[in-house]
Structure formats: structure tokens, C-alpha cells
Design a protein that fits this description.
about 45 residues; two-stranded antiparallel ribbon
Length: about 45
């Protein structure tokens, strides 16, 4: 019996774009604390 591997789910282009944007943008508050940017709200 020939076994074929299950396909590995690939991220969509929107997911890749959101992760790229999030990796490049960090929001810094007035008190100096850093927050990661949530790009998923911008991409729909």
C-alpha cells in the first residue's frame, strides 16, 4: 500500500503579509513600553 504524506497547510498571502508587517513595526507608548503591532485588523 502506497502511503502519501498529508499536505502541510501553507499560510495564505494575507497571513504572510500580516506577519511581515508585525515583524517590522513596534509601537512605543509615551512611557517607553513597546507593544507589537497587530496587522490582522488591517488585512481583511
Amino acid at each position: 500500500m502506497l502511503m502519501t504524506p498529508l499536505p502541510i497547510p501553507q499560510p495564505s498571502n494575507d497571513d504572510r503579509a500580516a506577519s511581515l508587517i508585525e515583524s517590522e513595526i513596534v509601537i512605543v507608548d509615551e512611557d517607553g513600553t513597546e507593544e507589537p503591532f497587530d496587522a490582522t485588523a488591517w488585512i481583511e
